[in-house]
Amino acid sequence: MPAHVSSLQLIGMAALTLATVAWAAVVTRLLRRNRREALAWHAAHALPAFPHQHEPAPPREAVELTPAEQDAFAGLVRRLGHR
């Protein structure tokens, strides 16, 4: 025992160390138990990856462009392609 440390300080340090170890053990046990319960709950209440679709998708729409609109679009693509 070091000469400059009193017996009460040693007993206090031992008590704090014991309390810390006990607290860590209790917290670890609670976290493990809650983890098992959470995994069991999630397994029982699992959601499907994709929900069922009640209605089919709307039909695809297409619009024909006039030759002038096609030329304007081609010019726009050329102009933006240089950037």
Explain how this protein is built.
The protein has two helices and no strands. With 83 residues, the chain is an all-alpha fold. It has a domain of 46 residues. The longest helix is centred in the N-terminal third of the chain and has 38 residues. 0% of the residues are buried. The model has no long low-confidence stretch (mean pLDDT 84).
Keywords, separated by commas or semicolons:
83 residues; mainly alpha; 0% strand
Describe, in short, the structure shown:
The protein is built from 2 helices and no strands. The chain is an all-alpha fold.
Evaluate the radius of gyration: 36 Å
Bulk shape: elongated
Distance between the termini: 79 Å
* Main sheet makeup: none
What does the average pLDDT come to? 84
Sequence-ordered SSE layout with sheet pairings:
Elements: H1 7-44, H2 67-81
